[in-house]
């Protein structure tokens, strides 16, 4: 019964903040974490059910998790967090892309240092 309560609060918080639309991938994650028990079949049916449920939910101001909901909304609206999440999702989604970027950055820094040292040495001879 506790899983149902957690799922209900998750649904309500999600509807109130309008951040997440449940997808079959979300259902799979919630099931794997033990938040929900899927008795309907595939994740598509469950995600459709969640989305229909939260569509008509009204939240009162004394909602139990209103402080958490406010923090989630503040975090979601922060441009720095959006930029960081997009950067991680689009460009650094694998360890290899992070390693390649780091190696490139080290190469560029070494090239700049070498160019500065070369310029200093050339101007010192005149």
TrEMBL record:
InterPro entries in the record, alphabetically? DUF247_pln
User: Do you know which Pfam families this protein is assigned to?
Assistant: DUF247
Query: In which domain of life is the source organism classified?
Result: Eukaryota
| Database matches in PANTHER family | BNAA09G04570D PROTEIN (PTHR31170:SF25), BNAC04G53230D PROTEIN (PTHR31170)
Return the protein name.
Uncharacterized protein
Q: Which organism is it from?
A: Stephania japonica
């Amino acid at each position: 019964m506790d899983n149902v309560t957690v799922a209900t609060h998750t649904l309500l918080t999600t509807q109130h903040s309008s951040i997440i639309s449940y997808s079959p991938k979300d259902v799979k994650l919630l099931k794997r974490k033990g938040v929900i028990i899927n008795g309907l079949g595939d994740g598509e049916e469950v995600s459709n059910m969640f989305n229909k449920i939260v569509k008509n939910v009204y939240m009162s101001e004394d909602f139990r998790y209103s402080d958490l909901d406010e923090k989630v909304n503040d975090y979601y609206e922060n441009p720095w967090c959006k930029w960081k999440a997009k950067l991680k999702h689009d460009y650094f989604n694998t360890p290899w892309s992070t390693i390649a970027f780091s190696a490139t950055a080290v190469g560029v820094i070494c090239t700049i240092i070498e160019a500065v040292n070369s310029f200093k040495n050339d101007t010192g001879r005149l």
